[in-house]
Amino acid sequence: DTESGIDPADMKILGLLLAGLTDQSVAGQLDVSVRTVQRRVKHLMETAGVQTRMQLGWHAARNGWV
What we know:
By secondary structure, the chain is mainly α.
């Protein structure tokens, strides 16, 4: 974990999603399954206490996750 408490791999996923990539594109870039991307995003949303990906992006930016 980094100082923010977010795994570097999760930060990479967030960065790619915020850049506009789809789950499938993120999975291809990181050589993981789409399900892995979706599971990690769900975990990040739970960690952030948010309901939507839009809220997750806002929370991530505000808290220095990306």
